[in-house]
Amino acid sequence: MSSELSSVVEAHLADVPDFPVEGVVFKDITPLLQDPGAFRRVIEGIADRYRGAVDVVAGIESRGFIFGAALAYELGVGLALIRKQGKLPRETHSMSYDLEYGSATIEVHRDAFTEGQRVLLIDDVLATGGTAASAATLVETCGASVAGISFILELSFLGGRAALGDRPTWSLHTV
């Protein structure tokens, strides 16, 4: 199944040269979202891996919301949102982390998870790992456990997997 899902993702990536800055080749996953059969196969494939092993899906802003909502629906579990600072209306836990140039902060509602819940984190791309590692720390701060972290695409040359430590991590396609 993993090689099939990798092929589906690979066939639905578009390379965008010089975005967001000159010299960068952006890997655009929107063609995957535009193909209903491919999108369904990806969601079903991820769900098959985690079915019965998670209590809630947490989507990381912003494309993680797209995959997270569909995945939570498929698994029959709830969806929590991990957002950029200042976007959630109630009390939050927050976590700051360094970016290549500067820093960022993400937040989750304090009541997003309950003690002992098994959480699947989902995002579109694993790059440097800072956002996902911070999201995992937020889950753990709430007393829940990270049952898995899943990505549609991993940019292995950026070494992001190392930032996630020993947390179970799965990427459908790696470049």
Strand content: 25-35%
> Biggest β-sheet, characterized?
7 strands, mixed
Strand element count:
9
Envelope shape: globular
Strand order of the largest sheet: 5-6-4-3-7-8-9
* Computed CA radius of gyration, to the nearest angstrom: 16 Å
Q: Termini distance? A: 18 Å
Mean pLDDT: 96
Per DSSP, the total helix count is 5
The oligomeric state of the chains shown is: single chain
Note the run of SSEs as H and E: HEEHHEHEEEEHEE
What level of helicity do the residues show?
25-40%
Q: Which structural class should the secondary elements be placed in?
A: alpha/beta
Unreliable stretches covering 5 or more consecutive residues: none
Description:
With 175 residues, this protein is α/β, with parallel strands linked by helices. The chain is built from five helices and nine strands; from the N terminus they run αββααβαββββαββ. It has a seven-stranded mixed beta sheet with strand order 5-6-4-3-7-8-9, sandwiched between helices. A two-stranded antiparallel ribbon has the order 1-2. A hairpin with a 7-residue loop joins strand 1 (14-17) and strand 2. The mean pLDDT is 96.
Secondary structure layout:
Elements: H1 2-11, E1 14-17, E2 25-28, H2 30-34, H3 36-50, E3 56-60, H4 63-75, E4 78-84, E5 92-99, E6 102-109, E7 118-126, H5 130-141, E8 145-154, E9 169-174
Parallel strand pairs: 3-4, 3-7, 7-8, 8-9
Antiparallel strand pairs: 1-2, 4-6, 5-6
Helix pairs in contact: 1-3, 3-4
